[in-house]
Structure formats: structure tokens, C-alpha cells
Amino acid sequence: MATAKKSTRKASTTGRSAASAKRASSRAPAKPPVSLIVRMYRNPAGKILLILAAILLIIGVDFLVTLNHFERFFIVLGIEWIIATLVGWILFVFRDRIKNGN
Q1: Is position 48 within any domain?
Q2: DSSP alpha helix (H) spans, 1-102
Q3: What span, in angstroms and rounded, lies between the C-alpha atoms of 76 and 79?
Q4: Which of 1, 12, 85, 101 is 20 to 30 A removed from 66 (C-alpha atoms)?
């Protein structure tokens, strides 16, 4: 009778060799996907396009709210303009103070 040949090599307990573990860890992490709006905002022409789209959206919502009564429309638009200007000035002052270290 023939006897089976016995192997002297020990079986790996993890199932992976050291070379494959080293190869897997050397990969660079994948970057998360960036949305279209973020990519547009990073481009100067995209910023202009996004600002125009926001202005048109605000004007459209104002028309819907005022039901095409132009007197009310211009009052609401004027109030929004004043609020946006005040918020812009406040943000400018805070950024200027942070920049100058006060």
C-alpha cells in the first residue's frame, strides 16, 4: 500500500499571506464623491450662475406669495433686500474683526 505524503508546511490561521496584507494596505483611500452644486460653486462662472439662479428663485417665490399684486411684491422684495444687506454688513464686520485679531 502506498502512503499519502504529509506536508510539513503549517496552514495559515487568517487565510491571508503577509504579501497580500501588505498590498491591500498600500492603497490610497477613495475620495468621497463631490456634488454638482459644490463643483459649480468652486468655479467662478458657476458661482455667478448659482447666484443668478438663487435670485430668480427668490423672485419667483415672491410672485407666488403676493399673487401677482405688484405693490405687495415690491414691498416684500424691498424688505428682503434690506435684510440681505444688513446680514451682509454684519458678516463683513465679523470677518474683518476676526481677520484683524480684535
Answers
A1: yes
A2: 18-25, 36-42, 44-66, 70-100
A3: 5
A4: 85
